[in-house]
Amino acid sequence: MNDLAHSQAAPELQAPEQAPAPQPAPAPAPAAEPVAADARARPIPRINIQAFCEDQKTAAVLQQVSEDRRLSKAHVTVQMGGIEAGTAFYRNAPTPNLIMVESLHDRDGMLADLERLAAVCDSGTKVLVVGHVNDVLLYRQLMQRGVSEYLVMPLTASDVMMSLSAIYSDPDAEPVGQVVAFVGAKGGVGSSTVCHNTAWAISETIETDVVIADLDLAFGTAGLDFNQDPVQGIADALISPDRLDEVLLDRLLSRCSDHLSLFAAPGTLEQTYDLDPGACDTVIDVVRSNVPYMAVDVPHVWTNWARQVLMHADHIVLTAAPDLANLRNAKNLIDKIKSTRSNDAPPLLVLNQVGLPKRPEISVREFAGALECEPKAVIDFDAQLFGTAANNGQMIEEVSNKAKAAEQFRDLAYLLSERTEPKAQRTSLLAPILSRLNLRKAGA
How many other CB atoms are there within 10 angstroms of residue 87's CB atom? Predict the structure, then answer.
């Protein structure tokens, strides 16, 4: 095919002058249960993607993919008609960066259709083929002809996202770091405390690099919680995001431990902070390209930049206290997150400050039932433990590694990093005797 395996920018699709434009795909029927796309899939660059489907189920999956947060910079259209419609369309229109076509034919029919499509494709256009024939020989022939990928129905949104990510990712590049956004359902519920302790647990238990980004520029507490008072921090990066690179990032970060660094907030009221969503995206992209994990402490505000940071994160941790205002806000946030991030897993719910003396509370069971979301951690109110940690600039595990809260932060760390906590091996009481017997047999 016309060098379809090499990427090259192409003009946006235009309506053909002679051939009639294919009909848009009808609105897909709502899926019974959306499949969460793999969080490791990389964001897709600013490209044009045109899909031509034969089957309504395929169109529904691709429509779901087009709404994925990782495709927010790409322009995606899904139409019906398959390879034949695509071939007719591109006789009078430039081809986009990527064409996705579906074929219901067997091997010979599909290859013949693709040859006709190749004749009208511009050099550099990539092609992803969706078929219904699971044939290794067909796959090899498609790869030989320059097709970028071949997927077999039935498909999920996760399958397509991982394929698109693989097409537009440099195989020699380092993996893109995971961004975990922490947000509270209400001010004062301890979202920052959950963020800092979970990030610290990831850095200590997983022994991998983590950066905490405190986006509460006026009132952020990350510096206090880690007993740090850096001169520079995240505000300097957000003011001039285009200057941020690996060297400047290293200068602006404050080192807390071997694996944990802090992008601290100024914590002053010398000026107001109206953040630019584009600046936030740039800073996050630079940080995640340098470390495996980035924990973003999102303040309890609802602005364009806060919403964008939240919705574009790989994982969201929502902290709430068991009262009515938190229940309402948590319900609104979860509904918004699910509708905007239909291909992602729902947010992880943390119930904090449970059992506050003399406060009427909604039970954990009723709270979870109303949200239709089981909490991943239920942290009891402990003024002595959390107060001591805050006043000393320490993490909970540093104050008491046997505390239940410390264990819950470790569990969150393993959950977010998709790791399994190593279990201590049980030693049998007969092990020493059996060991001596084995030694005697070996010496005999």
Answer: 22
In sequence order, which ranges of 36-75 are alpha helices (DSSP H)? 56-66
Residue 394 DSSP one-character state = -
Q: Of 280, 301, 275, whose CA–CA distance to 179 is shortest?
A: 280
Q: Around 437, how many Cα atoms within 13 Å sit in the side-chain half-sphere?
A: 5
Query: Is 107 a member of any domain?
Result: yes
Q: What residues make up the domain containing 377?
A: 178-416
| Tens digits of residue pLDDT in 176-222 | 788 999 999 999 999 999 999 999 999 999 889 999 999 999 999 99
pTM value is 0.73
Q: Residue 427: count other Cβ atoms within 10 Å of its Cβ.
A: 8
Beta strand ranges found along 81-199 (DSSP E): 98-102, 126-131, 149-152, 178-184
Instruction: Judge whether 426 lies within some domain.
Output: no
Question: Domain for residue 443, yes or no?
Answer: no
Q: Are the C-beta atoms of 268 and 153 separated by less than 8 Å?
A: no
Quick one: 168 and 187 in the same domain? no
Of 49, 110, 61, 122, give the one whose Cα is nearest residue 82: 110
The helix (run of H) or strand (run of E) holding residue 434 is helix 431-443
Interacting residues of 49 by C-beta distance below 8 A, sequence separation 6+: 66, 71, 74, 75, 76, 77, 96, 97, 98, 99, 100, 164
* Residue 298 CB burial class (10 angstroms; 0-12, 13-18, ≥19): buried
Which has the closest alpha carbon to 103: 128, 127, 145, 131? 131
How many angstroms separate the CA atoms of 100 and 128, rounded? 5
| 404 and 388 part of one domain | yes
The residues near 261 (Cβ < 8 Å, ≥ 6 apart) are 209, 210, 211, 212, 253, 254, 255, 291
Token reading at 55: 């089957």
CA angle (407, 410, 411) in 5-degree steps: 90
Co-location of 62 and 87 in the same domain: yes
**Nearest C-alpha neighbor of 90 from the set 61, 124, 117, 126:** 117
- Higher-confidence residue: 10 or 141? 141
Whether residue 434 is contained in a domain is answered as no
